[in-house]
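Retry 2 of 3 after timeout on previous attempt. Resubmitting structure tokens to design endpoint.
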């Protein structure tokens, strides 16, 4: 188990960072979409 431990830690950190990045991207997409919606509503 001790031999696997560093690898596991690196893997978990990698997965964590990827998920954080995905969450940030989703949040940016959502705020971009709501901005487009408000602009569209103003145009109407």
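Retry 2 succeeded. Sequence:
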């Amino acid at each position: 188990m001790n031999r696997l431990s560093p690898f596991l830690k690196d893997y978990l950190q990698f997965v964590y960072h990827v998920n954080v990045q995905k969450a940030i991207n989703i949040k940016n997409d959502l705020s971009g979409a709501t901005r487009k919606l408000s602009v569209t509503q103003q145009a109407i």
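Attempt log closed. The chain has a mean pLDDT of 89.
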